[in-house]
Amino acid sequence: MAIRAFVKHCAAVAAAATMAGLGLTVPAQAAPQPLPYVALGDSYSAASGVLPLDPSASPLCARSTANYPHVIAQRTGATLKDVTCGGAQTKDYAAAQYPGVPPQLNALGADTRLVTMTIGGNDNSTFISTVLACASAGIATAGQGHPCASLYGDKFTADIEGKTYPAVKAALKATRDKAPQARVAILGYPWIMPPTAQAGCFLKMPIASGDVPYVRDIQAHLNDAIRRAAAETGATYVDVAGASEGHDACQASGTRWVEPALFGTNFVPVHPNARGEAAMADLAMDALGLS
Predict the structure, then answer these.
(1) Second label for 52, Cα 20 to 30 Å away, from 24, 82, 182, 214?
(2) pLDDT in tens, 267-281
(3) All domains of the chain, ordered by start, with CATH?
(4) So which residues are the catalytic ones?
């Protein structure tokens, strides 16, 4: 047996020497390639208001390098192409948002394997109209009653259902058409307001006490429209609202994920802070199985 083992060893050495002499080598296992990742979306994707700003982005986009796409890319080693931009609407997927800021869908291609986004909150000016209208009404009544609900009724939710929902659905379908091999995830929006009025919150978010549930309901309608659009286009919906309960803009500085309209830390108010963006990254990675 010892002689046979010796012969086999000699044969192996000879074969190796022959391969080396011919310039042949045993192929090494290929290293895994970085995940081609494209980030689309609005200011909640761009982390507008969070420093430091991304020097590769237009200043009009106020994009941060601390946004959740950058966090995901850093944790996964993905190759990130970030075209998120503050103020983006679904229409900016197919058309230039600003001079020098091309349509966001241009960033996608056949090689794209991961796409994330938040989008829809700026369509019909839902977020800014809700906050400005309800804050103005709240100041006029010194925080009493429900003046915003009385003035606007179902206007905002009707716009979400009739306009935003089909627009988000079309944007997701267009994303799929441009990047057919990619996993697509769309994140909902974290809570801006708590379920009911809280002591001291009016100083930071001047919404009348009776309008706090009204504003919250508008955001719930938006998130549900986004969820349904994702389900109908094969995208992954990331439920941010559920996890952000208790982290709204009325909470203390070390707790909140969204900065308030007044006395906040972001230079763009009513937007996620760095803590909120990191949490959104965690939720997206969990939903996509990237953790």
Answers:
(1) 182
(2) 999 999 999 999 999
(3) 32-288 (3.40.50.1110)
(4) 43, 271
